[in-house]
Amino acid sequence: MTRHIKLFTIIIGALSLQAIGARGQATTALYGTLKAKDSLLFDIAFHSCNVQRLHEIFAPDFVFYHDNGSDGPTGTQSLTNFIENIQRRCTSHTPEMRREIVGNSLQVIPVNSLEAIQTGIQRLYVLSEQGGERLVEESKFTRNWKKQGNDWKMVSELDYAVKTNFPDAGQPRYAPNPYVPSAEPLYAVIARQDSLFFHAYNNCDMETMTNTFSDSLEFYHDQTGLSASKKDVLESTRKNICGKVSRELVPGSLEVYPIHGYGAVEIAYHRFHNNQQPVGTPSKASKFIVLWKNTDGHWQISRVISLH
Questions:
Q1: Which pTM was predicted?
Q2: C-alpha–C-alpha distance, residues 159 and 67, integer Å
Q3: Which domain holds residue 248?
Q4: pLDDT tens for each residue of 231-245
């Protein structure tokens, strides 16, 4: 009896190994099929421009999703929009590009006999006429594939922009040490001044804003230029901001430095929210610099640099 049980166990084990082997072979074949379609896509996009062949890759209801990080909403494109972008690139004078899969990052995960997920990390390079190239993006992609008839078609793709800033000429980008307030009481004072001013800003308290702005105010904006009129800045705020926009300081971004004999400089990031949009709509953080002038304990904003 024991001998029969052992024989039965051996047979079952052999059949299990055969099944695992068959699944492995099927996964390997699927990996090759989807990798070939990946290669075809980027050959069309960056080289051949034979967009008629894209129907070999995409399902008619394909949707492309592009993640824009915590500062921006995820973008979407239909198949029509996606193909139009490829055609636009092919007919314009945009620089040549090259795309590569990073190492062994490409994976294929069968969900069932009719669905599969393909994921990997890719790098995009811009090629120069002189023969060099510049790395411009490193991103992770996840694709959903479905078997339609005897062929596999991509039904969606989600790209995560992992990295878009790279050192120039092999030199690492400078990374400062973590900020430590040089004068704790001053940091608390300016943090409070910031809070009071922007509470007035968010609630259209024109009197507080008027008293906080110096008469010699200069407001530098990277998109609209310089405004050296306190009156104009206040009027623009009343007209364009009141009841329409609210401001949020990005937690942990505030830096304060003393300016001997004058006051202090505040450097931080903040976000502006359009109050007409749904609550939670993403807003990109922007950097600002404020010079605070201290006159006998009365703090006023004398200079603003607003960067977007």
A1: 0.58
A2: 6
A3: 184-306
A4: 999 999 999 999 999
Interacting residues of 304 by C-beta distance below 8 A, sequence separation 6+: 217, 218, 219, 220, 288, 289, 290, 291
Q: From its phi and psi, is residue 33 left (phi > 0), alpha (psi between -120 and 50) or beta?
A: alpha
What are the backbone dihedrals phi and psi of residue 245, each rounded to the nearest 5 degrees, phi first? -135, 140
CATH number of the CATH domain containing 190: 3.10.450.50
Contact criterion met (CB below 8 Å) for 248 and 273: yes
**Positions of E strands within the chain:** 58-67, 75-78, 97-101, 107-112, 115-127, 133-148, 151-163, 213-221, 225-227, 245-249, 255-259, 263-274, 286-295, 298-306
Give the whole-angstrom CA distance, residue 31 versus residue 38.
10
Q: Give yes or no: residues 158 and 238 share one domain.
A: no
Give residue 12's pLDDT: 46
Q: What is the pLDDT of residues 122-179, one digit of tens each?
A: 999 998 877 788 888 889 999 999 999 999 999 999 998 777 666 665 566 677 889 9
- What is the C-alpha separation between 76 and 108, in angstroms, rounded? 23
The SS3 of residue 188 is helix
Beta partners for residue 123, in sequence order: 100, 138
Q: How many residues does the chain have?
A: 308
